[in-house]
Amino acid sequence: MEIDEAVRGCSDRRMRTKYANAVYVVQRAFALYPFEEVAFSFNGGKDSTVLLHLIRAGYYLYKKDSGDVAEMDAVKNCPLRTIYFESPCAFPEINSFTYETVSTYGLPLETIHSDFKSGLEGLLKEKPTKAIFIGTRIGDPNAVGQEQFSPSSPGWPPFMRVNPILDWSYRDVWSFLLTCKVKYCSLYDQGYTSIGSIHDTVPNALLSDSSTEKIFRPAYMLTDGRLERAGRTKKTNQNIEMNSVASNGTASIEGEQMISRAASIIVVGDEILFGTTEDKLGAALCKKLHAIGWRVSHVAVVRNEIDSVSEEVERCKSMDDMVFIFGGLGPLHSDVSLAGVAKAFGVRLAPDEEFEDYLSQLMGNNYTGDRNEMALLPEGITELLNHKTLPLPLIKCRNVITLAATNADELDTEWDCLLDTQESGLVQAKPFVSKHLGTTLTDVQIAPVLAKLCLEFSDVYIGCHRISRAGPLVVNLTGKDNQRVEAAAEKLMSSFEGQFSQVDSCK
Q1: Residue span of the signal peptide, if any (predicted)?
Q2: Cα–Cα distance for residue pair 1/79, rounded to 1 Å
Q3: Please, are residues 161 and 189 in contact by the beta-carbon 8 Å criterion?
Q4: Most buried by CB count within 10 Å: which residue of 248, 280, 286, 460?
Q5: Secondary structure of residue 193 in the 3-state scheme
Q6: Using an 8 Å Cβ cutoff, are 84 and 111 in contact?
Q7: What is the distance between the alpha carbons of residues 16 and 172, in angstroms, rounded to a whole number?
Q8: Displacement of CA 67 from its chain's centroid (Å)
Q9: 3-state secondary structure of 3
Q10: Sheet containing 38-41: order of strands
């Protein structure tokens, strides 16, 4: 069979492994379900084109292993029931490629013109269907939580979703298509890397050869597969855009700067809870966030347990704009931070090709055994924050950023990179300003005045701490308006003539 021979004869070991795993899933599906009760969802895209040929190869090998030699020539094209949801918004090239492919391989086509769910309901009523092959891959919007065999979602018609290429990357897809030299939709040679409808898909600008002539390189030349959906765009209403720009004047900018965004900090480490070492990075990060106008609402130290990390992330991610995690990264049994993040978002850990490449370059020949697990990242929600000064990208999962720093110098470097990376989401606002006043007055003496001051200066945070129980009391005044902070300080000092003096923030 030409597909099997092409892959097994290639020098790409990764491709051979991915292929072997995928065709095993195909063979397993044919062993579990009657052939007439299995279908294949084909949409003319690169992923379903790969899946078509994997099904052909898997079916061929399944028949071969069963000893049905007499039928070998007849099963090479695997005449599996094929479902095509035809849309008036589809590219003409997709439609023509789909019908041409179906004809070439003798696939019994069932075209559906309604939406996916309604179409499936009607199809399954007419013909018993226990399993459907689908070309879902990690990173697809609907891939989160799926396995290679996944029952359909609640509320949908009951069938088994079979996902042979779930763990394939963009690079794997093109490696297979080019190795096997099979035909694919012509749009991919025109710079399209992920094809939706005619209303939301354009060539990927990262493949542009010329900004004036609009010439694009083929899709397989995209070096970073994580950006395959960069050609998906939504057309917006021009009037809305103009109104938005027109209203974004100086007053709006000032208002944006005054907004206080909130962050949480989670430190993972049994050694801190045991008292073996102390957390210094959390305090340092608080100061850095404070300096860019962010408020820190919560700092927690949790155990090196997946559930402990997960529960804390779950609590913080919905309350704050950003969550930062220290510790628990690496190949050791106690490095559970990413697993905890994945559990908090209800996804699994899955191999990330780009991160694996970085690890290989960094670790060289030492990248073996358990260290491969370091390339497992939360599926479908991970974004790598690359920067030229970092040996490895920082990991961002929605609004959760995992930091690799172990000391203050490393934190300084990672923080500068985050501020220099737009994708980090660290919008710089107007910084907080603080004033610290020390006194030997008792708590009872100053309490009534501070209570009134809080009411009068509600935009200024007023807090207190003692250097020691018998020592001086420090009043902290913090806000984004320096004049208001100074006014509050002046009001306090005038209430107790000569009893307050300015002190350093660390004292």
Answers
A1: none
A2: 15
A3: no
A4: 460
A5: coil
A6: yes
A7: 10
A8: 45
A9: helix
A10: 109-112, 81-85, 38-41, 131-133, 160-162, 149-151
Helix, strand, coil share (%) of the chain residues, nearest 5:
45, 20, 35
Tokens 């720009």 belong to which residue? 245
CB 40 within 8 A of CB 133: yes
pLDDT confidence of 210, banded at 50, 70, 90?
low
Contact between 156 and 132 (Cβ < 8 Å): no
Q: Would you state the structure tokens that stand for residue 228, as one six-digit string?
A: 């395959």
CB atoms within 10 A of CB 77: 15
How far is the C-alpha of 467 from the C-alpha of 471, rounded, in Å? 6
Rounded to an integer, the average pLDDT of 225-251 is: 48
Beta bridge partners of 265: 299, 324
pLDDT at 179: 94
pLDDT tens, position by position, 48-94: 999 999 999 999 999 888 766 555 555 567 889 999 988 888 899 99
How many angstroms separate the CA atoms of 387 and 39, rounded? 45
Alpha-helical (H) ranges within 227-305 are 238-247, 250-258, 270-273, 281-291
Whole-angstrom distance, CA of residue 475 vs CA of residue 460? 12
pLDDT value of residue 105: 92
| Burial of 9 per CB tally in 10 Å (0-12, 13-18, 19+) | exposed
User: At which residue do the structure tokens 């895209």 appear?
Assistant: 45
pLDDT at 246: 29
Instruction: Name the amino acid, one letter, at 412.
Output: D
Task: Answer yes or no: are the C-beta atoms of 185 and 44 closer than 8 Å.
Answer: yes
pLDDT of residue 236: 40
The DSSP string of 319-349 is TSSEEEEES--SSSTT--HHHHHHHHTT--E
pLDDT above 90 covers a percentage of the chain that reads 55
**Residue range 170-192: average pLDDT?**
94
pLDDT at 250 (0 to 100): 30
Q: At residue 145, what is the residue type?
A: G
Residue 366: pLDDT band with limits 50, 70, 90 = low
Query: By CB neighbour count within 10 A (0-12 exposed, 13-18 middle, 19+ buried), where does 210 fall?
Result: exposed
Residue 337: count of CB within 10 angstroms of its CB = 25
Reported as a pLDDT band with limits 50, 70 and 90, residue 164 is very high
Facing residues of 84 across strands? 111
Task: Kindly tell me if the per-residue pLDDT of 163 is higher than 90.
Answer: yes
DSSP 424: G
Cα(379)–Cα(109) distance, rounded to whole angstroms? Answer: 33
Angstrom distance (rounded) from CA 328 to CA 144: 24
